[in-house]
Amino acid sequence: MASSTSAAEPLPVPRRARSFVSAREVADLAGVSRSAVTAGASVSEETRNKVLQAAQSLGYHVNHLARSLIQESSGIVCIVGAAIDTPHQSRILDAITRRLQAIDRVAMVINTSGDEASVEAALRQTLNYRADATVVLSGTPPASLVDTCLRSGQHVIVINRDDQLVGPQEISVDNDGAAREAFHILFRAGCRNMAIVTSSAGTPSLVERERTFQAAAREAGLDVSVTRAGPTSYEAGYASAKALLPGAGRPDAAFCVTDLLACGFMDGARAEFGISVPDELCVVGFDDIEQAGWSSYELTTFSQPSESIAERIAGLLETSGHGNSGKPRMVFPAKLVWRKSVRPR
Amino acid sequence: MASSTSAAEPLPVPRRARSFVSAREVADLAGVSRSAVTAGASVSEETRNKVLQAAQSLGYHVNHLARSLIQESSGIVCIVGAAIDTPHQSRILDAITRRLQAIDRVAMVINTSGDEASVEAALRQTLNYRADATVVLSGTPPASLVDTCLRSGQHVIVINRDDQLVGPQEISVDNDGAAREAFHILFRAGCRNMAIVTSSAGTPSLVERERTFQAAAREAGLDVSVTRAGPTSYEAGYASAKALLPGAGRPDAAFCVTDLLACGFMDGARAEFGISVPDELCVVGFDDIEQAGWSSYELTTFSQPSESIAERIAGLLETSGHGNSGKPRMVFPAKLVWRKSVRPR
DNA sequence: TTGTATGCGTTATCAG
DNA sequence: CTGATAACGCATACAA
Asked: What whole-number distance in Å separates Cα of residue B175 and Cα of residue B180?
């Protein structure tokens, strides 16, 4: 300890109340050299133990911030997403954060659900904290965002966004195949007057599902109606039912591009018109959110392989050199989950 | 390019492919001093513009990692939570991340849903990245976690955990008041044979709701049964209904300590026994998750003020000195949301 | 206003 | 194994 009463001392360091201890202090307490603290294997058992004990008693934790200054990797991965309180998005966020931890990365989540102005500010965080990569979940697409990240040489991974962006690595689900399959199971169920229930959001994957379903219908010589009652929500699904199901030429089937829409649609059909599913109306959803399996819905839908997507992200992060090159776009199949909202056969 | 064939060159700096630009480079391009780049106000309009333009064209972003090395604050806030894919938890996570961004902090989320072993590892991240604070959401309680953080002088905020921990600042919801109110509305609805549906998780707030409800019943001279069919989930609620509702002395009311349990319970009651809610069975939930408002449930429940909690957290972070002292525990009321799962009057 | 020095806690390298 | 030293990018203080 320095003498505490010497008044003449300049005391150059204000000695702010640092609560974290440095490797230097550990070395001092252990009575070893500074290098011995962070040395990997080249230390004797005894030295190692002294260091460990000192670190333990002082509560030492490596400062990743300082480490990242020199190393190429910060260990931080930014997850940019909107509507993370939504069943599907929260599940994928859950899967990603778990995976990330498993490979010793940490997730920094940027919520773009706020006002659009804050998106820019939020994005800056990604760069400010020198994230190793940025994962953009489907949703409101901050178009300039991806570009800015790429310009800074960041690793960008984009999920379920089929835009023509070059640079980012893309992971998505086979929306086309699923939409086509959705049409066929409805067709085989005998439905000939189908409707598409979607939202006004214009999310790429949603648009694709709509377009492909419509194309499949056209090929079969069928015309389908499209309803857009608002954002991608339960309420919009309910409102769609209210708007679509009265009248004479009531549809006998609905392809809801999202389970949330589907749940709302089913509830609207039942509560407002007493329609029975699947006897009078068949419904197919997308995402396989938890609620799709609840006994009030028993919704036939397509599951998004959250775990596989998260695993893939982890893989990309681990193998990636600095470039975004090499890996092609990855498309996962969306597996059909048969429940009871479509008549069998 | 350096000559690639000169064998004698020491080539001291490997010059790794740095993708991020430093303040030095901005200064060089702008033709100003290094200090001028990060200087706040003491810079001429002209200099400022040159700097801004250079920064823009180079794609410069301040390195928070380096900055945090010298400053007291890293701007990082750790959110530790389990089951973030759950309606209630995901909503609160959503609220917190939004608030945090509004006050220029960034959320690092640690998912403790994985194996218990990873919790320790995850916790270390908090310390490693020198987070300004750690917010522990209700859920699996890593007991030692809080302690370790506090020992490192970290700011710890704990939500809905009424343990006797000293040190952390606590934010919670008035579980007692709500549970008591739940009992009384069921009592006033004429119910005399009540059941509590809870989980085997042992989460502090859930335990409190159960205990208080039971106490209120006892005061009124009533005996209530308690069912625990598993974790805090829809399935457990469903299973509880299956276990509880056959038999002779079937309850006429259930207080489900969570909306997820309540939804499962209602579905079980209807699907397995054709019981009508609220005519034959009244149900009260807790959390006011989105699904509680869906027309298949119309669940009477208590809302957790996610936004207020998030706001409070932001407030604590902004005003807090280094100590955890001063602020008392904050308890928010849980507002009753009347819907249709309890008979009126 | 600008240049320069110093420190933050690491990692990496090298001489003893 | 130890000690010394050079980065890393920024902030801060001080001198020009």
From this structure: 8
For residue A125, the chain B residues in CB contact (below 8 A) are: 64, 101, 106
Compare A323 and A295 and report the one with higher pLDDT: A295
Percent of chain A clearing pLDDT 70 (strictly above): 86
**What total number of domains does chain B contain?**
3
Residue A220 shares a structural domain with residue A295: yes
Residue B71 lies in a domain: no
The alpha carbon of residue B43 is apart from the nearest alpha carbon of chain A, in Å, by: 23
A271, closest residue in chain B (CA to CA): B295
Other beta carbons within 10 angstroms of residue A189's beta carbon come to 17
Element (DSSP H or E) covering residue A330: strand A330-332
In a domain, B17, yes or no: no
Averaging pLDDT over each range in A5-14, A50-59, B291-300, which range is the top one? B291-300
Instruction: For residues B38 and B136, state if they share a domain.
Output: no
Taking the complete model, does pTM exceed 0.85, yes or no?
yes
Query: What count of CB pairs under 8 Å joins A to B?
Result: 187
In a shared domain, residues A298 and A310:
no
Residue closest to D3, CA→C1'? A33
Residue A83 to residue B53: CA distance in whole angstroms: 35
Residue A213 sits at the vertex; the CA angle it makes with A212 and A218, to the nearest 5 degrees, is 95
B86 and B57 housed in the same domain: no
Q: Which residue among B65, B85, B322 places its CB closest to the CB of A129? A: B65
For β-strands A133-136 and A155-159, DSSP reports them as parallel
- Res. B268: pLDDT tops 80: yes
Assigned domain for B341 exists = no
- Cα of A215 to nearest chain B Cα, Å: 33
Residue numbers of the domain that contains B56: 23-62
Clarify whether residues B136 and B165 are in a common domain.
yes
| Enclosing H/E stretch for B331 | strand B330-332
Is the peptide bond between A278 and the residue preceding it cis, with omega within 30 degrees of 0?
yes
A186 contacts A284 by C-beta, under 8 angstroms: yes
Residues of B with Cβ-Cβ distance to A291 under 8 angstroms: 291
Is A67 a member of any domain? no
- Taking phi first (over 0 means left), then psi (-120 to 50 degrees means alpha), and beta for anything else, what does residue A235 get? alpha
Q: Which of B77, B93, B101 should one mutate to test binding to chain A, selecting the residue with the greatest count of A CBs within 10 A?
A: B101
Tell whether A295 and A181 lie within a shared domain.
yes
Check residue A6 and give its pLDDT: 34
Residue of A nearest to B271 (CA): A295
pLDDT over 90 (residue B162): no
How confident is the prediction for chain B on average, in pLDDT? 86
Q: What is the CATH number of the domain that holds B154?
A: 3.40.50.2300
Helix (H) or strand (E) holding B118: helix B116-128
What is the DSSP annotation of B289-306? -GGGGSTTT--BEEE--H
Q: What percent of chain A has pLDDT over 90?
A: 58
Q: Do residue A133 and residue A219 come from a single domain?
A: no
- What confidence tens digit (pLDDT) does each residue in A140-164 have? 556 677 777 777 778 889 898 876 6
- Give dist(CA B239, CA B271) in Å, integer: 12
**pLDDT of B203 strictly over 90:** no
In this complex, the answer to whether residue A279 has its CB under 7 A from any atom of chain D, a nucleic strand, is no
pLDDT at position B140? 57
Question: Helix %, strand %, coil % for chain A, to 5?
Answer: 40, 15, 40
CB contact under 8 A, B294 and A322: no
Over 60: is that where the pLDDT of A18 sits? no
Nearest DNA or RNA nucleotide to B42 (CA to C1') = C1
